[in-house]
Amino acid sequence: MLFWITTAALVALVLLVLAAAMSRHGSSAVASDMAVYRDQLAEIGRDLDRGLMALPEAGRLRIEVQRRLLEADRAATGRQAATAAPKGAMAGLALAGLALGAAVFVAYLWLGAPLYPDLPRADRVAASEVLRAGRPTQAAAEAAAGAPADLPGLDPGYLAQIDALRSAVATRPDDLTGHSLLAQNEAAIGHFGAAARAQARVVALKGDQVTGADHAMLANLLILATGGLVSAEAEQALTEALRRDPENGAARYYSGLLFAQIDRPDLAYRLWRPLYEDSAPDDPWTGALQGQLDLVAEAAGVEYRVPAPQVKGPDAAAIADAAAMSTQDRAAMIGAMVEGLAARLADQGGTAAEWAQLIGAYGVLGQSDKAAAAWAKASATFAAAPADLDVVRAAARQAGVAQ
After folding, report:
1. CA-to-CA distance for 150 and 159, rounded, in angstroms?
2. Distance between start and end Cα atoms, the chain
3. Could you tell me if 181 and 244 lie in one domain?
4. How far apart are CA 240 and CA 224, in angstroms?
5. Which of 34, 80, 182, 385 has fewest C-beta within 10 Å?
6. Which strand (E) or helix (H) includes residue 87?
7. pLDDT single digits (tens) 7-66
8. Whether residue 270 is found in the same domain as residue 150
9. Nearest residue to 158 via CA among 198, 186, 194, 196
10. What is the tens place of the pLDDT at every residue in 197-248?
11. Percent of the chain at pLDDT above 90?
12. For residues 227 and 207, is the Cβ–Cβ distance under 8 A?
């Protein structure tokens, strides 16, 4: 509101100054002299009528006053011509002032936030800290997310093995290998809260040997257990991960997610852009950044557009070779390509599109068990990225391993 009041006052002041200047140019001492001369001519006529002045004298005075009146009229004409240009310039300035005011008004409507109060940077930072302090605890966030359910399509024998592992680990609280295996398998079936508790025990048991990757995995599981919320407990795990390994991609991604959640898109953008530009297309966080970095950049006031990822496929030579193969050889080649993709995704991770490609390939080959296992792994990987999860789920439904 202060902006509008100040702008209106400045425009009004400029117009008043210009109007006053133009008014001064419009009045003239010459016009006043001409009025005096006309009054003198009238007075001479009255004196002549009353007999107060002789005719010769009246004629002489009239000639003199008329001469002065003509000179004043010529002077007034010349001054009007001389002041015409300044008046035009002042009128142009007035119009320019109005145009500038209108331009400022339109620009503010486009770029600004009319009727909103001023929000200095210090206030925005303070509001962000209030959001940060007001986050629910990990336990509250997990409770709000609901109790976990087994992912569909899992082998009952595999679930029985996990139950046996739980029972064994419960009797051996210092079994590092057992807790590590439990964390991995609980995550694989979608029990992220239980996986996080097992991983927290792994971190504690490793002591001085714990790595940044261990803390990053703990943060990942904590965040998955809350449905994507970065709690204070997860933030602490991220801090420890980055302290030990500042280049850890997962920790950098989730730290940016924290800043996005507490309304600091500027800090999220500073973390996410270099992470995206440093990452390979098959890094597990690349797909999530693909869908979020544009929005964060826009909220931070930065013009930045992320190019769409490209899913790798066979080149022209491979396609030509496949066309010349027998049906049996072609099937063997396709199977090898699918297994190669599966091995790469298992070792290095990949984008949602690549996981969908793998699940779809298993479905076409009739390998439903492998399609279900890939869907379970991919759903755990992209649980915090709904858009990517939808891509993978669509492929799983097409393959008949998801509802």
Report:
1. 9
2. 54
3. yes
4. 18
5. 80
6. helix 55-111
7. 666 766 766 666 665 555 444 555 677 777 777 778 877 777 777 777 777 677 778 877
8. yes
9. 186
10. 999 999 999 999 999 999 999 999 999 899 889 999 999 999 999 999 999 9
11. 29
12. no
The CA–CA distances, whole Å, from 207 to 173, 184, 201, 203, 241 equal 15, 20, 10, 7, 14
Q: Is residue 119 part of a domain?
A: no
Residues 309-323 as b/e (b if ≥16 CB within 10 A, e otherwise) read beeeeeeeeeeeeee
Domain that holds residue 342: 316-399
Q: DSSP secondary structure string, 277-335?
A: HHS-TTSTTHHHHHHHHHHHHHHTT----PPPP------HHHHHHHHTS-HHHHHHHHH
Closest-CA residue to 253 (of 222, 293, 210): 293
**What are 153's two structure tokens?**
């399509």
Identity of the amino acid at 328:
Q
Q: Cα–Cα distances in Å, from 277 out to 173, 290, 293, 317? A: 42, 11, 11, 30
| Burial class for 213, CB neighbours closer than 10 Å (0-12, 13-18, 19+) | middle
Among 182, 210, 207, smallest CA distance to 196 is for 182
Pair (159, 23) in one structural domain: no
Which residue, chain included where needed, has tokens 């995995």?
Answer: 217
| Pair of tokens at residue 322 | 């496949």
Residue from 397, 187, 382, 192 nearest 287 by CA: 382
Residues 6+ apart with CB under 8 A from 166: 182
Domain assignment of residue 305, yes or no = no
Note whether 187 and 91 are same-domain residues. no
CA distance 104 to 99: 9
Overall domain count for the chain: 3
- DSSP per-residue codes, 325-362: S-HHHHHHHHHHHHHHHHHHHHHH---HHHHHHHHHHH
